[in-house]
Amino acid sequence: MRAGPHSGADAARSPIRLDLTVNGVPVSQMIDPRRSLLDFLREDLELTGTKKGCDHGQCGACTVHVNGERRLSCLQFAAQLQGASVTTIEGVGSADGGLHPLQEAFIRHDALQCGYCTPGQIMSALALMNEGCPEDPAAIKEAMSGNICRCGAYNGIVAAIREVARDAG
Amino acid sequence: MRVEWIFPASVDEAVALLARPGHQAIAGGTTVLDLMKLGHRPGPVLVDISRLDLTEISEGGGIIRIGALVSNSQAARSPLIRERLPALSEAILMGASEQIRNAASIGGNLMQATRCGYFRDLAWPCNRRTEGSGCAARTTPAAGHAVLGASAACIATQPSDMAVALLAFDAVVVARAIEGTVRIPVAGFFRGPDEKALPATRLPQGALITGIEIPAPAGPEASGYVKLRGRASYEFASASVAARLEFDGDVLGRAAIAFGGIATTPWRDREAEQLLIGAPLGRAQVGLYLDRALAGADTRPETAHKIPLARGAVHHLLERLAK
Lengths: 169, 323
Fold this sequence. Notes:
The structure holds 2 protein chains of 2 kinds.
Chain A: E1 16-22, E2 25-31, H1 37-44, E3 63-66, E4 69-72, E5 85-87, H2 101-108, H3 118-132, H4 137-143, H5 154-168
Parallel strand pairs in A: 1-5
Antiparallel strand pairs in A: 1-2, 3-4, 3-5
Helix pairs in contact in A: 2-5
Chain B: E1 4-6, H1 11-18, E2 23-26, H2 30-37, E3 45-48, E4 57-60, E5 63-67, H3 72-77, H4 79-84, H5 86-93, H6 98-103, H7 106-111, H8 117-120, H9 136-139, H10 161-168, E6 172-177, E7 180-185, H11 186-189, E8 208-215, E9 222-228, E10 239-248, E11 251-260, E12 267-268, H12 270-273, H13 283-293, H14 306-322
């Protein structure tokens, strides 16, 4: 798997300045304007909780929050995020390292097998809570349809989301 | 692959930049980055319009306006659009996923590239990528290809759900060019591949889409969108339909029906729609409309399923709207 555009000898670049916050921490770097947010997070900031699945916007494994909205970091140019606030899976737990209630619910409901899609599922579902999570399982599946789970843990994922949404409501 | 990045401070500055060779507008960037990773070469100068103030959704003077930089999510969830243009809200929400709809702009939705595999993969000839190089899909068609509006140059479907609803609403694309503002009806915005495969739209070279204008529905009407596809969600249309109906007592007073997923452009047959006017909405009458509207379809074994899907989608939607 290629990690995206790197500083190859043939790649003439015009680095641009990027200042943003990631999980509440200010970050300031010169970046290649071709850099995806996903590669910026994983390769430059070494935040490898966000996963690269398809790298083409088809699987949702790379889902993060940009200014509170869920987005695909693989289809997001980092260069467009000047001043933005980005939250990744590393930023959702409590300060003392405890899991977020939704992460606990994923474990309780067996909402994963291999776990590769899980950070994206969690980030997507957390945004769904803020958007107004529906009660109907079919509506939850539609709202979560941008996150693919090839292990097929969908029933557990929906159950975990319903439980946390119900507790929050 | 060299890329320069420029943030213009105004629409005027953006338009002046876009008039230069090799300058390409970028907003949400989802398609640009996707294609770049496949080896497509953007720009090479990307004129980033994402900070411009083109984010208004409003109604006035009988026109509903949506700024080009309104995100797909914002448009679909706007109370104004949900109440006045339900088919448009439904169509947008049936495209992509919430993650992509949050990032992608309305203007970018209109300008998105075809998803034809032969266009995306640089190993194949494609007239929509390189004019005159040929069309691999003509000899090796796949399930996603068009049955209407195709030519020797191209049989790729137009991928936008939103554009299908906009066609049913007689929407107009508003753009700024160096010479001033231009308005292009959605009905003429996408070029069929009859003449040449490129450019894919009639947006003037160097012009920037600033918004969409939709005539506000005058009377009480019902509208909706049905999309049929290979899985329940997060997939491009095998066949889709946007419709607006206005009843005059028991008979249909007005009808606008647009198809997606089956043609090289959003597809509408206004003459066939006349078959529905002045008659009660019944299955037989709708069948006559469909016979006429789909008469020109050129199917292959790989795409023949689109006809019954399109017919079923229309029956299903019109019955729903008649209730």
